[in-house]
Amino acid sequence: MASEESVSKESVSEEAVAPPQIDHVAEKKLVRKLDLFIIPIIMLLYLFSFLDRVNIGNARLYGMEEDLGLQGNQYQTAVSILFVTYLLSELPSNLVLKKLRPSRWISFITTSWGIIATLTGITQSYAGLIACRLLLGLVEGGLFPGAAVYLTLFYTKRELALRIGYLFVSAAIAGAVGGLLAYGIGFMDGVGGQRGWRWILILEGLPSLVLGIATWFLLADSPETAFYLSDEEKELMRVRRQRQAGQTESAQKFHKEDVYLGLKDWKIYMFCAGQFGTDTMLYGYSTFLPTIIKGMGKWSTAQTQALTIPCYCLGALSYVVVARLSDAQQKRGLYTVIFALISVIGYGVLMSDAGQGVHYFGCFLVAIGLYVACGLPLAWLPSNQPRYSKRATATGLQLTIGNASGIMAPFLYSSSDEPRYLRGHGVSLAMVAMAAVVFGFMSWYLSKRNDQRRRGEEDGKVADMSEDEIAELGDESPRFIFTV
Question: pTM to 2 decimals?
Answer without folding.
Answer: 0.85
